[in-house]
Amino acid sequence: MLDLKEYGIIMWDAEKIASFRRTLLDWYDREKRDLPWRRTKNPYYIWVSEIMLQQTQVQTVIPYYERFLDWFPSVRDLAEAPEEKLLKAWEGLGYYSRVRNMQKAAQQIMDDFDGQFPDTYENIAKLKGIGPYTAGAISSIAFDLPEPAVDGNVMRVMARLFEVNYDIGDPKNRKIFQAIMEILIDPNRPGDFNQALMDLGTDIESAKNPRPDESPIRFFCAAYLNGTYDKYPIKLPKKKPTPMQIQAFVIRNMKGEFLLEKNIEGRLLGGFWTFPIMETDFIGQQLSLFENDNYVLETVSQKAIFEKNYALKPDWTDNGFTPVKHTFSHQKWTIEMVEGSVKDDKLPTDKELCWVAAEDFDQFPMATPQKKMIKTYEDSKKG
DNA sequence: AATGCGTGGGG
DNA sequence: TCCCCAAGCAT
């Protein structure tokens, strides 16, 4: 067991802990949000909600949650679903490995747990895509097990309660907050205790613009009482996303269909369909070639590279589309679109390519950058 | 241990 | 408009 004193944290006595639990749970009983996944103890439903809620806000999740359970009512349905339907169910939510891992976990439940959702922390934590936070959340909410669910909210609230001088963004410090929570958690209502802290951290004790005077636990909060509230939690700034210049090729055949390509699995937006794209940070620049005893500078165009890689000879119709901007967690794209049309639409076989009519776009899983490109293209044709 | 992996909302 | 942030996990 980790010794909190070594981290400069003075734990409360039993009476204060009991008082804290009562104060927090009384507030939760009055103020808790009525959310779809709070009307059930079905571990499958709880699991779906917890995976969707990873790094994703409640308001965004609700419609996805309802539709997901409609499409995949049971673990078995999820285990047997085709990949395309999985991606459609998650389209627009982001972090798509979440849903791939969920399907693997559903298959683990069918194969290793006889189709029954595991009911111990240890077995729940064996499932793909379930880490310490999610294992704690499911254990406590669905099975009433006294397991902490340490997420960003809990770390923030705990850091303020005890003036924890350790960076909450550093994974190795997670164990400090885990140790605090193992002592504080109410063994009689562990699920409510965990969710109360999340509700509190989401709104009143949020990261930006918190309202500490409204917190039901302010008189337990060292940072509040000592006037150091603004100093906690300690969190080092993240790295900024890398700017990247991208070229997209909007190519149509004689039927007016668009060329789409399926992204390679295991990479960014793997399995989703997009207009062919190319990173152009390093091309479109001048290359030196050795020719006739001299070096000559030659500008290699993206279009030439496209023609070679896709074995197509489009007639290019340049028409200055507004660049599409899209920021991922780690990359910041500026996408320039170019348009072309082909008479001969025979496609190479070394890539997953197909011609698709605009009215059939919704049958293909498409991520947000592609949706933005389609909108920009259509808007330019209208205006 | 550090990095890859999305997206939408709020200031 | 741009920047920061949010109910993490896998490798």
Automatic annotation (TrEMBL):
Its cofactor is [4Fe-4S] cluster. It catalyses: Hydrolyzes free adenine bases from 7,8-dihydro-8-oxoguanine:adenine mismatched double-stranded DNA, leaving an apurinic site. Residues 52-203 form the HhH-GPD domain. InterPro entries: A/G_AdeGlyc_MutY (IPR005760), DNA_glycosylase (IPR011257), HhH-GPD_domain (IPR003265), HhH_base_excis_C (IPR023170), HhH_motif (IPR000445), MIG/MutY (IPR044298), MutY_C (IPR029119), NUDIX_hydrolase-like_dom_sf (IPR015797). Its EC number is 3.2.2.31. It comes from the Bacteria. SUPFAM superfamilies: DNA-glycosylase, Nudix. Binds 1 [4Fe-4S] cluster. Pfam families: HHH, HhH-GPD, NUDIX_4. The keyword Oxidoreductase does not apply. Keywords: 4Fe-4S, DNA damage, DNA repair, Glycosidase, Hydrolase, Iron, Iron-sulfur, Metal-binding. Gene3D superfamilies: Helix-hairpin-Helix base-excision DNA repair enzymes (C-terminal) (1.10.1670.10), Hypothetical protein, domain 2 (1.10.340.30), Nucleoside Triphosphate Pyrophosphohydrolase (3.90.79.10). SMART domains: ENDO3c. The keyword DNA damage applies. CDD domains: ENDO3c, NUDIX_DNA_Glycosylase_C-MutY. Belongs to the Nth/MutY family. PANTHER family: ADENINE DNA GLYCOSYLASE. Adenine glycosylase active on G-A mispairs. This is Adenine DNA glycosylase. It comes from Streptococcus raffinosi. The lineage of its organism: Bacteria, Bacillati, Bacillota, Bacilli, Lactobacillales. The gene is mutY.
